[in-house]
From TrEMBL:
Species of origin: Microvirga tunisiensis
Keyword set, alphabetical order: Transferase
Name listed for the protein in its UniProt record: GNAT family N-acetyltransferase
Source species, domain of life: Bacteria
The keyword Transferase is assigned to this record: yes
Length: 175
């Protein structure tokens, strides 16, 4: 029986690749980190150099997972976690971000699901923690959709844009 293939609207994530970050990615990652919107949601300072990025990537230890998101060969996202040592080895600290022009397309959701899959299915982590600025509503919504809960507020957490800003402490406990 020859059925007509279903016609689906184009999926903006079809040409997206999520893979391990490598030191040779330092130029693309530094460019991403220097974008105003990307940087606004992080603790990064302006003008991060590719050399600084390369050192960080080369220094990644066995307890770190560092992934990049590529679209058409261009790095548009970064995410991962650092597993905590000793009596906190059941937990990891998550960080992630996406290129300013690619938000709201489901790419961040795909990246977060990959990170959670590694934590749950490969490393048996019980807890994933993060901090997120209280004014970053899209990120907070993304984390809540993926099982993260607000556990508290860090008052005057960081100095950003000339003022101190608060951040939520969020965590996901493996179901």
């Amino acid at each position: 029986m020859n059925a007509e293939p279903a016609v689906h609207p184009p999926n903006p994530t079809d040409d997206v690749v999520i893979r391990a970050a490598r030191p040779i990615d330092c130029e693309g990652i530094a460019a991403l980190g220097n974008m105003p919107g990307y940087r606004w949601g992080t603790l990064r300072l302006p003008y991060q150099s590719p050399e600084e990025t390369r050192k960080r990537l080369e220094g990644n230890g066995p307890n770190n997972v560092s992934l990049v998101v590529e679209k058409n060969g261009r790095i548009i996202g970064l995410g991962g976690f650092e597993r905590l040592p000793g009596r906190r080895s059941h937990a990891a600290y998550l960080g992630m971000g996406l290129h300013d022009d690619f938000r709201g397309q489901g790419i961040g959701s795909r990246l977060l699901r990959e990170i959670i899959m590694i934590a749950d299915d490969w490393l048996n982590l019980r807890r994933i923690e993060l901090t997120v600025y209280v004014d970053n509503a899209p990120a907070i919504a993304l984390y809540k959709r993926n099982g993260f809960e607000i556990e508290g507020t860090h008052r005057d957490f960081a100095f950003r844009g000339g003022v101190f800003v608060d951040a939520y402490a969020m965590a996901r406990i493996k179901p």
